[in-house]
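As a warm-up, study this chain.
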Amino acid sequence: MANIPEVILVNISTKDIIRDLRIKSGLSQEELAEKLYVTRQAVSRWENGDTVPNTETLKLLSKLFDVSVNTLLGSPRRLICQCCGMPLDDDGQISREPDGAFNEDYCKWCYTDGEFVYKSIEELTDFLVGHMSSENWPPEQARAFFEAQLPRLAHWKKQ
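Now compare it with the structure written out below.
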């Protein structure tokens, strides 16, 4: 089901997202239910807003439609890469595991194919300073900012 057109999410609820993804994929409620091992009535209840799929079903929907669970839930929480601090505003920025599943903790530039790109906080800081500093944000200021902010992120707290 890959290459489904991107869904624009502006205060859209889970029920609308599931319905829109199903329709764009050319699936009936019955066909979607079969793929998810649920009843057609369950799909209908989701699309009517009576219930929300459970966690395991959300993971199946995520894989089927190639969107993150966060997207399926209407982006209820703001995702931030826990390595570099970049806001993850759309699914195209979110990293993936080697099996193709989304990893909503990291951006695709920090975590690729199951591996972290930056082996140390210093390596990442040097990269960010080199690419983010400018005439309006001198390298010294950028470095001070990143040295203060990066250690607060979950990935570096573990180190």
